Automatic annotation (TrEMBL):
This is Cytosolic endo-beta-N-acetylglucosaminidase TIM barrel domain-containing protein. It comes from Ranatra chinensis. It comes from the Eukaryota. Residues 72-348 form the Cytosolic endo-beta-N-acetylglucosaminidase TIM barrel domain. It holds the Pfam family Glyco_hydro_85. SUPFAM superfamilies: (Trans)glycosidases (SSF51445).
């Protein structure tokens, strides 16, 4: 799996040959229940307060934007790799949209990420990005020719259809000439229209970047009259990270009846962001949620990139998501039967029917099974106790299994969220 790096590569794109086509390997996007619940205390004691539920269209959303070292690392291999400790993500129940990000012109999400997201009912988007002088030249050439605009849009949609991902994040990080800026707006409208026609249910998001009417690259850090026409032409806006409370209040007002389509950008690396990112990312998430706005988490792979022998990935990952879990809305599947081995798409061996069939380490997100709604820890991770632990010491299918343990001597429950035929099942109780 690779991106398309040049305008000519996009304009000249054609359907791949059968030998190079991984499109048929993409799983369809499964349905999600219409109901959701806030994350709460894990392994709650029996007799605790019941969980409150809402319909998904009544609550703000969470977008996960994956940016790691330029992208296309071990995740680029259609059949996986032997690097079992490559970056992975499994906490899909609290995520509404996943974006695969790179700095290439057209980022096509790798197969493994599409399949992992689709397995959990999460749409997976690619990215269209232009930057600097090269980006300016791309748009100057493209917007000067209506036939090129139409071909560009058409091929972007065909790529989306061929590889069965669910739309794009559009990020214009360069100046657009004042004479061309409204042509860019027309391009956005055309792309959205063609996506709706050929890929119903797809999503097009606008990144807070160039402005009307000047075409200057001026991040607004809010929704206002300089970027609202782009917002109106798309399914939402991803705000730049250097916002304050007043910016969010103004954004919510300007969004009118679409406040959940405003995604408050939060850089987990902390560049200009409230709380300075990292394990303080929860500070920025809380600020957005106070106004009932959606959030866009940029580069949560920070937990993997900044690990060390004394601060390993699994401990950092659990700590990060524990800190923001109270601000997430959890969704589950909408159809039965549901089966899972809890494999996360990696392991030290490959198991089938409980037997080892290969003793080689492996990594393949396409083989990730459905993951629990509740916050899951890791066996051997020195952290506050949780009653669900992922283990790779044993498995029934794939590379891992789930250990259910007790955090106290009282009867406890752990949750699952399944919505079937307009009803929601929230609690599965077990005395353990």
């Amino acid at each position: 799996c690779w991106p398309l790096k040049t305008l000519d590569a996009v304009l000249n794109w054609s359907l791949p040959s059968d030998n190079n086509d991984w499109g048929p390997l993409v799983r369809p996007l499964v349905g999600r229940g219409i109901n959701t619940t806030r994350a709460g205390p894990q392994c709650q004691h029996l007799g605790g307060a019941p969980y409150e539920t809402w319909q998904r269209n009544e609550v703000p959303k969470t977008l996960y934007c994956h940016d790691m070292k330029g992208g296309y690392l071990d995740d680029r291999f259609v059949n996986g790799s032997g690097q079992h400790d490559a970056f992975r993500f499994s906490r899909w129940s609290g995520i509404d949209t996943f974006v695969y990000f790179s700095h290439s012109l057209v980022t096509i999400p790798p197969l493994g990420w599409i399949n992992a997201g689709h397995t959990h009912g999460v749409p997976v988007l690619g990215t269209i990005i232009t930057e600097g002088a090269v980006g300016h030249d791309i748009w100057e050439r493209l917007l000067s020719n209506e036939d090129s605009i139409e071909m560009f849009c058409n091929n972007l949609v065909l790529i989306c259809v061929q590889y069965n991902f669910d739309g794009y994040l559009l990020n214009i990080e360069n100046h657009i000439g004042q004479k061309e800026i409204f042509k860019l707006l027309s391009f956005v409208r055309l792309l959205k229209s063609m996506l709706n026609e050929l890929k119903p249910g797809s999503t097009l998001l606008w990144y807070d970047s160039v402005i009307l009417p000047t075409g200057q690259l001026q991040w607004q850090n809010k929704l206002n009259d300089r970027n609202k026409l782009f917002f109106d032409a798309c399914d939402g806006i991803f705000l730049n990270y250097v916002w304050n409370d007043n910016d969010l209040i103004e954004s919510k007002y300007n969004a009118g009846n679409r406040p959940f389509d405003v995604y408050v950008g939060i850089d987990v690396f902390g560049r200009g962001c409230l709380g300075n990112g990292g394990f303080n990312t929860c500070v920025a998430v809380e600020a957005a949620r106070k106004l009932k706005l959606s959030v866009a988490l940029f580069a949560p792979g920070w937990v993997h990139e900044k690990q060390s022998p004394d601060d390993p990935f699994i401990a950092r990952e659990l700590k990060f998501w524990r800190l923001i879990s109270n601000y997430l809305y959890l969704s589950g599947p909408s159809t039965l039967p549901l089966s899972t081995s809890f494999c996360q798409g990696y392991g030290l061996a490959v198991y089938r029917d409980g037997l080892v069939i290969s003793q080689k380490p492996w990594y393949n997100l396409s083989r990730q099974n459905y993951q629990p709604t509740d916050l899951t820890g890791y066996e051997g991770c020195d952290s506050p106790p949780v009653c669900l632990l992922h283990s790779i010491r044993d498995a029934f299918e794939g590379g891992g299994c789930l250990i259910v343990t007790s955090c106290s001597n009282q009867p406890q429950i752990t949750r699952y969220v399944i919505s079937v035929h307009n009803s929601v099942v929230l609690d599965g109780a077990s005395n353990y």
